[in-house]
Structure formats: structure tokens, C-alpha cells
Design a protein that fits this description.
With 1192 residues, the protein is an alpha+beta fold. 14% of the residues lie in helices and 30% in strands. The radius of gyration is 38 Å and the shape is globular. Residues 1056-1097 have low confidence and may be disordered. Residues 1-68, 249-433, 720-892 form the VWFD domain.
């Protein structure tokens, strides 16, 4: 049985309750005590009652309802009266059913006796129906015994047919492959080879080829074609078969601090610097696009975009928020052309930059300075910078200038600084939490985006308004100028709708403070352009006649009038004529150009004759530079060469000159301020600096630091993880995050999702139930279908049914987790980690790019299309997407996502306080690798919602999810404490497993103190395949290998090589600490104090002292050496005739460089050098095989 409780009602006279066996002996009421004994059902106080008296005891004591006691008269039926007829009727229902007929015969006799016309067969229908149902539940054959004049169910709707034993697993156009484990039942069903058309809602059965499709609530017939942004879709078999169309890339900078990359990855940052927005080899003359961010208020997060810079070998064009245009430091008037670039005013609020090489910029001047970038297809896969790499994959958009993918936006942004600027900050505090008044104001004015009945509602099915609403609230609270940012956010949503073909007009007049005033008798329009609205467009159409593909608003002249040089709208006959040098002549006046007389008529020059051919105090090696010094450089220290700038590969584009220290020519400044040659520039990742030659493993790549940039090699096999945790939080394989509250079974992930309905080799389903009074849900059980095998995870344990010989399954149990490793040869390797409660993590390696589908997305590297519905169309919001992946079509749809903190405001302060550990210094080592804000918000939401018991468990589970995300990137955080989410591992020291049922019940008199809690199997290493927290009994430098059934070392160091010249060398894999120098380490005599020798078989570190000499400086330092013995083994392999040996040696765990201050004879200042150092030892594992050569 798949469910704990099921209630069936036929809307009339039948009710059935099904429960699991685990409730046996724990029930009461009319349905009995469920103890397996039939004779004691009506017992009360050791007395056997009549059924009606027993039933009277079950009445609910409701003061609003009066139930009089009725003494039921007992009806006696002669033993043989109607008995033969009833037996015949039961045989008609099922001739061979093994269910006992005795009780049904008696019930049938009573039915006939009580009939208004005794003996009528139709009075027995209820009893016969129940007999049919009981036989079906026992999987006995049931006949089609009903007829039009005997126990008829009435006429079936549409073309459905009556069956006495039909499958209740309703197959529909929305879900034609629905399967369930249930017994047959009677009713109306679709004929064989058809499915129910649930989309048309006419209860008609159709062949699957005739199934319609649905989109945004509208129905489309088979064969209908829909054209949307960048794709064309055709309705086929109830699904949309879509073809992707070539579309340009779009990147935007909105709301002061929000960026959306070409591949649609949104992020926010607060920095004050000039950043590389986009660079590409496809831009001519080594061109690049920059963005200037400056402070715009008192707080550190009030930063905003103030200027856009396009720089190349030929131009340096600056467009600033004050509408100024500068080219090569000279102020220019609009419109302006320089070679392949044309810049003009498209409306009173927008400036457009058009180029002939495929790059277009639309700059919004008012109410907030914003930019929209459009890049042609030739740039695809050839861009770098804040706008991402435009390769169709969202997961690698945070590729830094050092060629490695960062985990957080601030570190990614910092790598693209084009100047010597401070690092960007990452705001941890919600700006709306600082003032409830500001928060209420922001939510009130921004709610127009999400409310029903507003002008924006018609766009909700096309563009999800929730992200825009959240951005609007943040901007309104963060910036002092509230309404410009609110209006800008509303305008961004209107623009997003227009980009999808849904135009929203007149929205500014429906909200406060968003109207735009026009001057010079211009008029406002929601869809305007400069072409044929200015006098200039009459003189030179090439300067201003470049329409935008997405409508823009603003002020322009009414139709039939044109904007002149005085910003007034005039008739064509009054237009001046513009010359190439920026000058103009008034209407009806003349000028001589190249010896030709030209007259200005209707804004155009009319010339006669033949035109002339136009083809004729710093530490060395730094030095101080001053902006005030005549000999100083133009921008001073603002363009000081840094390793970070070297990585970007572009010239510095500062906004102003700054005095300061700069490195000597040929040297570059590191993050720590020191100067190095370019070959020695370090690389950065996760906020950590790595020296030349160091290797890291990140994002399925092995990367080596070379000349300040990461050189990465893609690993042959990569994986991705989908997580479902807490109260409906999901992160897809491609990184899309969303929340849903639904009480149903949903498909998490399955394969075989191509255009044809292929057979899937696996399917993972989650069942959700309500777990709080606010209506939020939590994952209750997980079912893993592997062909004929099903693994069910529920009630903190697992169960396996069926068998699949083509699938390998390995299950590892931990006190806190259940780990399932599944291998489908030549296709997938899956690892599922379940915390026995609400969290499930699905990690998949795959051999080929098979198509996946479900709540976990399609696993194609692009989060833009993760909301692909069962009908293969991309939904605009998560609710439409989630509803399409219901496993049972009879479940209701989800129409909203509850906000638990709004319904339980008294819990919010407690939730924020407890969850703040995620943003605290406890997780500081991880916060630069894994963004913590989404996990903090999820924790607060879950902690507010779990108000029905287990509130601390919900909070602890949410924090554990972030801790696991940190472990996945190699950061082990010890965050639990005795008074904060404790784990009781000592239980296993005093109890042992009961061999009978696997429970831990037997108390041990002698304590076994080997079990302890550890936040990870292995700290900061990746030897363990699944690195999770739990109760472990291996040593701190080992983990338990469930397959080898032994403790294995966490870290196996590479073969050591000497790195420094010394009589006694310390092995180290790191490069020499000093360039072109030698450090001599002299061993001092051993101390006279007796040192306790290490225990035999125990590898451990031992401290000792050594003298270090270098350049007439020296010091005695305390170092560490490894001493002790490690286990080794050798065993015979008779089948292979080999000796299999496992050898270990006592070696350093990790070697790193440590600074040491040496005392110098000729200087008061100490000399700081780096030496190799380690402080822990492990047994290094290795294995070998020797062929047997036995002697006689």
C-alpha cells in the first residue's frame, strides 16, 4: 500500500477507509479496533454489545447537534427466503470469487425483505456492488453483471463505456502514462486505445493523437502552431513540439544593482568601480563595453550605474546619466556618429547606440539610469564580463577574468574590475527590515505587479511577476529616492511583457508618481521612436532611423510634426537642415557646400550642380604618482597595473585621476599590495589566492594557475544535483530555485523525455503532505522506480519491492542519512542522499545528453527553460509548471504559494534570529563559495511555517542543507552545538543493534567510546565519494568505506618532491617559496627532555625545533614531523593467482607555506620568509598486486 490513509466516497451511500498495517491495534470508532480479531469488534468494558448500541457509543459530543437514541428493531428473515436468488445474484457478479458469501447472502436477503416490493432484485444493488468491490480488491475476476434494467449506473458521459472491473489509474491527455498500484473498480472508463481529454473538459475519450494542448490557460487543437519569442511550437499528441529559432542575446543592468546575463542568470551586487560589462574578439579594434558604478546615497549599498563606456583602439565613448556624450574626452552633441557607431536619442527617456557589427545598446535615462544590451548571433559563445559568456548555459555565467567559475556574484564581479577599486560588498541585511514604514510603502506600491485585477495581470501567464515584485521592494527600501526606483521596476516588467509580444499600455497613469511630463509640445507614448519624429531624421535617416525591436516609452513629437534644434515640435516646412559637421541652416536658407549652393526645404538640402569628390612614498619597487604633478600620468594610480587587470586583458578605463602608489614598470600589483612579474601573478577563487602552478578542482574541472589566469581541463565525467528540501524548496539540476506548496505526488525527475514518448529507465516521485497550519508542505515520501523495482523512502526507513537485474543498487545507512547509489550500465550513475525526513538530494552522472524532465528540470545546463511542462512548453511561473507534473491527475492544482511568515508573524523574529547563523562568521569560510542568502531565506520560511510541532527540526534541516552545499564545494563547517541542533551520537556507544529487527535497543554495560559526531566524513578533501555529516567511528583522518567495510584514509598525498635545498628535506608539493633564492635550514641538537615515543601502529605528529638561516638572518622555529607505524596487509587471491597488498606510510596530511620572521644582525626589522609547513599526519594508502611465483 502506498498511502497511510485513504477515504473513498461515492457521493451517495458508500464510504470506505483504508489505512496501513502500522496502525493495527491503534484505532477505534465505527471501523473497529483493527486488531485482527473479528469477534471482539463490538466490545466495550469487557461486554459484547449489539451493533446499534456499539454505534451509539461512537456519537460525537457536539453541543450543536442532538442525536436521539434509537433502539433498532432486529429484522428476522426466514433462513431460505430469497437465499437461492441471492446466491445466484452473487454468482452473477463473480462466479469464482473466494470471498465468503455468507454475510453477503444475509445482507441480500435483508435488502429484499426491506424492499417496498419484497423480492425485487434492484433492491440488492448496494450489497452486490460491495461484493463486486471486495472481490476486485482481492484480485478476483468480476463479471460485467449490470444491465440497463438491473443495477444500472446510468448512461456514461460522452463516449465512455461501462466496466465492472476497470483500472482507476485515469490516463488523460495531460498524463497519458499515469500508472498506480490499485485494484480495479466499477464505473465509466475510456475504451481501449484512448485517453480522457481533460484539457477540453468535455469528458470525451480520444486517441492520443487527437489530444489538444494547453498554453496559458488556452486550448489549442492538434496541429496548431504557436510562435513565441525565439521558438515555434506545434501541438502534437497533447504536447508542444518546439523548434528553437535564432535569437540575439540580451543582457540588462536595471534598478541600480541588478544584472541579467545573456543566458538569463540574474544577480545583484553593490560595488563602486568601473567593470568590464562585455568583451569579445568579435568587437572590432579590440573593443569592450564598460559600466561605471558610483555611490548614490549614504549607505554602502546605495550604488548605481552612472555611465556606460565603449572603448576600442579607435574610440572611447562615454554615455553618462546626465545625458552627456563624450568621445576621446570631448563633449559631443546627439546624434553622433563615429565610424561604425551611431548614437542618437530615441525618445526623451532613452538613448540608443547602434553599430554595424551586431551590438546595440538602449540606455534608459529616466527615471533610473539603466542599460539593455543586444548582441547578434555572431557573439554567441564569444563574450566575457558581467554579462556572462552567452553560450546557452546558465551554470557557467560566473566565469571570472581568471578563467574559473566563481560561486558568488561579488567575487565574480570583482574579477572584472577595470581599475584599482575596492571590492564589492554583499549585503546580508534586508533593507526593508530597517524600517517597517519603508517596507509597507514598498510592498503597497509594488504589489500592483502581483495583484489580481491590475493592469499587469494579463501578463502574468506570460511573464512571472514575482521576481520583479521582489526586486521592486528591494529597490524601494534600499534607495533614498523611492519612487523613481519603484517606477523603474514596474517599467522593467512592462518591458519584459513587451518582449514576449504582450504590450501593456497606460500603466503609468494607474500607479502613483510614475507619469512622465513632456516639454516643447511633445506628447507621451508607450511605443515611440525618433524616426520621422525629428527634423534630423528628415535630413539624415541613417542617424536616427534605427527602430528598437521592443517598444519603448517616452516623449516625442506628435505625428506630422518634428523636433527641431530648440526641442520644439514644428511642421516639416519649418525644419532646419543639419550638416555633417553638426551645424545646421534654417528653413528656406541656403549654404555653399563644396562649391555647390544648397537650399533647406522641408528639412532636406536641395543642391544644384556637381558635388566635389569627398575622397580628398612608497616602498620599492613601488613609486608614487600624483595627479597634481605636471609629469604625472593622466589618471595616476587609478590605472595602476594589477594582476587582476592583467587577467581581464583590457586597458584601464577610469572615471577620474587618483594619486597613489604604483608598481614599477613591468611589475603588477597582487591583492596583498606587493609587486610581482606578470608570470608570478596569482589566481583567485572563492576569495582565496593561489600561487603559480597550484591546482584546484572546481565545477567538474581541474584548473592550474598560470600567469594570473586559470587554465582548466574539463573532466571526462561530470554530475549535477537536484535538491528538494524543507517545505517545498527545489533547486533544479541547472540551478533554478523555486518553492511550491502542493499535496499530491509529483514527478521529480525521469528520463526518456524526448519528442517521442520513449520508455523511461527510471522515475523518482515525491509525495507531499501539509505539515503546518499555514498550508505549507513538506516532502513525506520518495519513490524510486527502476523498471520492475521500486525503492520507497518513508517513515525514516526504506523498502524495496520487485527486482531489476539491469540495475545495480547499493544502500548505505548513516545515523542521519540514507545514501543510495544506483548504476544503470552505460547510462547513469545516481547517488541519492535522504535525511530520513524532508531533504532529498539527487546527484546524477550521465554518459549521454539524454533528456530529463520533471520538477528537477531538463538538465541541459540552461535554467531559462527549466519550467518545461509535461506538454513540453516552458511555463511562465512555477505553479503552472508544478501542476503539470502531478502524478495523479485527480489531485487539485496549486493556485498560490503561502507565505508562512505573513501568517505567523509572531514566529518571524525567532526564525530570523535562529537562521542568522547561515549569515554569521560560523559559515564565513563558505560564504564566498556558496551564496548564503537563498538558504537563509529558505530557513526563515521553513521556521515560520513549521508551527505544528517539529519547529526546531525544520530549522535545523534548513541549516543542514546549506552546510551540505558547503561540503559539496569542499568546505566543512562544524556548526552544531549542544544547545543548537545537537546530534546524539553517543547513543551508539551504549546501545547495539538488535539482530532481530535492526533497531538499537540492547543496552551495553561496557561503554564503547568510538562513535562521535563529525560535520563531514573528511574535512576539505574529496576522497570520500559522498561527504556528509553523521555519526562515525573511524579516526578523524579516516572515513568508513561501506563497500570495502573498512576505514580508509581521507587524504592520499601525491608523491612528494623536495622544494628547497637543505640537509634534511621536508617533502612538499608546493613551488619554491622564494624566487632565485635558497633557504638553508639547519637542524638543532635534539632536546635532552625525553620524548614519549608514538604508540605502535599509531601515526601521529611530533613537534621538534630547527634553526632557519637566510641572508644573515636566523631563528629557531618549531616544526612537525610524522612518526609512527601504519597498517599494511597482504592476502592471497587464489582465483587470479596474485597477492593483493595494501600498504600505508605515515606522511603529512597537507603541506602549506607559512610565513616566519627571522631576526637579522644588520637590521632592526625582521626578515619575513615562507617555509613549507604541516601540522597533521595520516596513513597514506596505496595498493599493489604481485603475481604469484611459488617455490617448490
Amino acid at each position: 500500500m502506498e498511502i497511510e490513509l485513504a477515504v473513498f466516497w461515492n457521493n451517495d451511500d458508500y464510504l470506505m477507509v483504508l489505512i496501513e498495517e502500522k496502525y493495527m491495534g491503534r484505532t477505534c470508532g465505527l471501523c473497529g479496533n483493527f486488531d485482527g480479531q473479528e469477534l471482539n469488534e463490538f466490545m466495550s468494558e469487557d461486554k459484547l454489545l449489539d451493533p446499534h448500541k456499539y454505534a451509539a457509543l461512537q456519537k460525537i459530543d457536539d453541543p450543536a447537534e442532538i442525536c436521539p437514541f434509537e433502539d433498532m428493531a432486529i429484522t428476522h428473515v426466514p433462513r431460505k427466503k430469497f437465499a437461492r436468488v441471492c446466491s445466484q445474484l452473487l454468482s452473477l457478479v463473480s462466479p469464482s470469487c473466494n470471498i465468503s458469501r455468507k454475510g453477503f447472502v444475509i445482507r441480500c436477503q435483508l435488502d429484499m425483505q426491506a424492499c417496498s416490493d419484497p423480492g425485487q432484485r434492484n433492491c440488492t444493488c448496494a450489497t452486490l456492488s460491495e461484493y463486486s468491490r471486495q472481490c476486485a480488491m482481492s484480485h478476483e475476476e468480476v463479471s460485467d453483471w449490470r444491465s440497463d434494467d438491473f443495477c444500472s449506473l446510468g448512461k456514461c458521459q460522452a463516449n465512455q463505456i461501462y466496466k465492472e472491473c476497470g483500472s482507476p489509474c485515469l490516463r488523460t491527455c495531460s498524463n497519458p502514462e499515469y500508472t498506480c498500484s490499485s485494484y480495479c473498480t466499477y464505473g465509466c472508463f475510456c475504451p481501449e486505445g484512448t485517453v480522457l481529454d481533460d484539457i477540453s473538459r468535455n469528458r470525451t475519450c480520444v486517441p492520443i493523437e487527437q489530444c489538444p494542448c494547453t498554453l496559458n490557460g488556452e486550448r489549442y487543437a492538434p496541429g496548431d502552431v504557436m510562435k513565441a519569442a525565439c521558438r515555434t511550437c506545434k501541438c502534437s499528441m497533447g504536447q508542444w513540439s518546439c523548434t528553437e529559432l535564432p535569437c540575439p542575446g540580451r543582457c540588462s543592468l536595471e534598478g541600480g544593482s541588478f544584472v541579467t546575463t545573456f543566458d538569463s542568470r540574474p544577480y545583484r551586487f553593490h560595488g563602486v568601480c568601473t567593470y568590464v560589462l562585455m568583451k569579445s574578439p568579435m568587437l572590432p579594434h579590440n573593443g569592450s563595453l564598460m559600466a561605471v558604478f558610483e555611490k548614490s546615497g549614504y549607505t554602502s549599498t546605495e550604488t548605481s550605474l552612472t555611465a556606460i563606456i565603449y572603448v576600442s583602439g579607435r574610440d572611447k565613448i562615454v554615455i553618462s546619466k546626465n545625458e552627456g556624450l563624450i568621445d576621446e574626452d570631448e563633449l559631443k552633441r546627439l546624434p553622433y556618429r563615429s565610424g561604425d557607431i551611431t548614437i542618437f536619442r530615441q525618445s526623451s527617456t532613452h538613448i540608443q547606440m547602434y553599430t554595424t557589427f551586431g551590438l546595440e545598446l538602449l540606455i534608459q535615462i529616466l527615471p533610473v539610469f539603466q542599460i539593455y544590451i543586444k548582441a547578434g548571433l555572431q557573439f554567441q559563445g564569444n563574450t566575457r564580463g558581467l554579462c556572462g559568456n552567452y553560450n546557452g548555459e546558465t551554470t557557467d555565467d560566473f566565469m571570472t577574468s581568471m578563467d574559473i567559475i566563481e560561486g558568488t556574484a561579488t567575487l565574480f564581479v570583482d574579477s572584472w574590475r577595470s581599475g584599482n577599486c575596492p571590492a564589492a560588498i554583499e549585503r546580508d541585511i534586508d533593507p526593508c527590515s530597517m524600517s517597517q514604514l519603508n517596507k509597507m510603502c514598498a510592498e503597497t506600491h509594488c504589489s500592483v505587479l502581483v495583484k489580481k485585477g491590475t493592469i499587469f495581470e494579463k501578463c502574468h501567464p506570460v511573464v512571472n511577476p514575482v521576481p520583479f515584485y521582489k526586486r521592486c521592494v528591494y529597490q524601494a527600501c534600499n534607495y533614498e529616492e523611492t519612487f523613481p526606483y519603484i517606477c523603474s521596476a514596474l517599467g522593467s516588467y512592462a518591458r519584459a511583457c513587451a518582449s514576449m509580444g504582450l504590450f501593456i499600455g497606460n500603466w503609468r497613469s494607474t500607479v502613483d508618481n510614475c507619469t512622465i511630463s513632456c516639454s516643447g509640445n511633445q506628447t507621451f507614448s508607450y511605443n515611440t521612436q525618433a524616426c520621422d519624429r525629428t527634423c534630423l531624421s528628415l535630413s539624415n535617416r541613417e542617424l536616427e532611423c534605427h527602430p528598437t525591436d521592443i517598444p519603448i516609452d517616452g516623449c516625442n513629437c506628435p505625428k506630422g510634426t518634428y523636433l527641431n534644434h530648440k526641442n520644439q515640435c514644428v511642421r516639416k516646412s519649418q525644419c532646419p537642415c543639419y550638416l555633417h559637421d553638426g551645424k545646421f541652416i534654417l528653413a528656406d536658407q541656403s549654404t555653399v557646400i563644396g562649391g555647390i549652393t544648397c537650399y533647406c526645404i522641408n528639412g532636406n538640402l536641395s543642391c544644384t550642380g556637381r558635388p566635389v569628390d569627398p575622397a580628398e612614498s612608497c616602498k620599492s619597487p613601488k613609486r608614487y604618482v600624483s595627479c597634481s604633478a605636471p609629469s604625472g600620468s593622466k589618471y595616476g594610480a587609478a590605472c595602476a597595473p594589477t594582476c587582476q587587470m592583467l587577467a581581464t586583458g583590457i586597458e584601464c578605463v577610469p572615471s577620474k585621476c587618483e594619486s597613489g602608489c604604483v608598481c614599477a614598470p613591468g611589475l603588477y600589483q597582487k591583492l596583498d599590495g606587493t609587486c610581482v612579474p606578470p608570470d608570478e601573478c596569482p589566481c583567485e577563487y572563492g576569495g582565496i589566492s593561489y600561487a603559480k602552478g597550484e591546482e584546484i578542482h572546481a565545477e567538474c574541472k581541474t584548473c592550474t594557475c598560470e600567469r594570473g589566469k586559470w587554465k582548466c581541463i574539463q573532466n571526462s565525467r561530470c554530475s549535477s544535483t537536484c535538491s528538494l528540501y524543507g517545505e517545498g524548496h527545489i533547486t533544479t539540476f541547472d540551478g533554478q530555485r523555486y518553492v511550491f506548496d502542493g499535496s499530491c505526488e509529483y514527478i521529480l525527475v525521469m528520463d526518456g523525455c524526448g519528442k517521442s514518448r520513449a520508455f523511461h529507465t527510471f522515475k523518482i516521485v515525491t509525495e507531499n503532505v501539509v505539515c503546518g497550519n499555514t498550508g505549507v508542505t513538506c516532502s513525506r515520501s520518495i519513490k524510486i522506480h527502476l523498471g520492475n523495482m521500486t525503492i520507497t523512502l518513508a517513515d525514516r526507513t526504506h523498502a524495496i519491492s520487485g527486482w531489476n537485474p539491469q540495475t545495480e543498487v547499493f544502500i548505505e545507512e548513516n545515523a542521519l542519512h540514507l545514501v543510495i547509489e544506483i548504476t544503470i550500465p552505460d547510462k547513469y550513475e545516481m547517488t541519492l542522499i535522504w535525511n530520513r525526513h524532508m531533504n532529498i538530494f539527487i546527484k546524477i552522472f550521465r554518459e549521454a545528453k539524454d533528456q530529463f524532465c520533471g520538477l528537477c528540470g531538463n538538465y541541459n545546463g540552461n535554467l531559462r527553460d527549466d519550467f518545461e511542462t509535461r506538454s513540453r512548453y516552458v511555463a511562465s511561473n512555477e505553479l503552472e509548471f508544478v501542476n503539470s507534473w502531478k502524478e495523479n491527475p485527480l489531485c487539485g492544482d496549486v493556485f498560490f504559494v503561502a507565505d508562512p511568515c505573513s501568517k505567523n508573524p509572531y514566529r518571524k523574529a525567532w526564525a530570523e534570529k535562529k537562521c542568522s547563523i547561515i549569515s554569521s562568521n560560523v559559515f564565513a569560510a563558505c560564504q564566498k563559495k556558496v551564496p548564503h542568502k537563498p538558504y537563509y531565506k529558505a530557513c526563515v520560511r521553513d521556521s515560520c511555517g513549521c508551527d505544528n510541532g517539529g519547529d526546531c527540526e525544520c530549522m535545523c534541516d534548513a541549516i543542514a542543507v546549506y552546510a551540505k552545499a558547503c561540503l559539496d564545494v569542499g568546505v566543512c563547517i562544524d556548526w552544531r552545538a549542544p544547545d543548537f541542533c545537537p546530534v546524539y551520537c553517543d547513543y551508539f556507544n551504549s546501545h547495539k543493534k538488535n539482530n532481530m529487527d535492526g533497531t538499537y535497543t540492547n543496552y551495553i554495560n561496557e561503554l564503547n567510546c568510538t562513535w562521535h559526531y563529525r560535520p563531514c566524513k573528511c574535512a576539505n578533501v574529496t576522497s570520500a565519494k559522498v561527504n556528509i555529516e553523521g555519526c562515525y567511528n573511524c579516526s578523524s583522518d579516516e572515513y568508513y568505506d561501506h563497500k570495502k567495510k573498512t576505514c580508509m584514509p581521507c587524504y592520499i598525498p601525491p608523491t612528494p618532491t623536495p622544494s628547497i635545498t637543505t640537509p634534511t628535506l621536508i617533502p612538499t608539493p608546493v613551488p619554491p617559496p622564494l624566487h632565485n633564492t635558497t633557504i638553508i635550514i639547519t637542524t638543532t641538537p635534539r632536546p635532552t627532555t625525553r620524548v614519549t615515543p608514538p604508540q605502535r601502529g599509531k601515526c601521529q605528529p611530533v613537534k621538534y625545533e630547527q634553526r632557519v638561516d637566510h641572508k644573515n638572518c636566523s631563528k629557531t622555529v618549531t616544526l612537525t614531523r610524522c612518526e609512527g607505524m601504519c597498517p599494511s596487509s597482504a592476502k592471497l587471491n587464489i582465483a587470479k593467482k596474485t597477492v593483493d597488498m595494501e600498504c600505508t606510510c605515515c606522511m603529512p596530511r597537507t603541506i602549506y607555506m607559512k610565513e616566519v620572521e627571522l631576526d637579522c644582525l644588520d637590521s632592526d626589522k625582521p626578515l619575513v620568509i615562507e617555509i613549507p609547513f604541516f601540522d597533521d599526519c595520516i596513513c597514506n594508502f596505496d595498493g599493489c598486486t604481485q603475481q604469484l611465483n611459488p617455490t617448490v
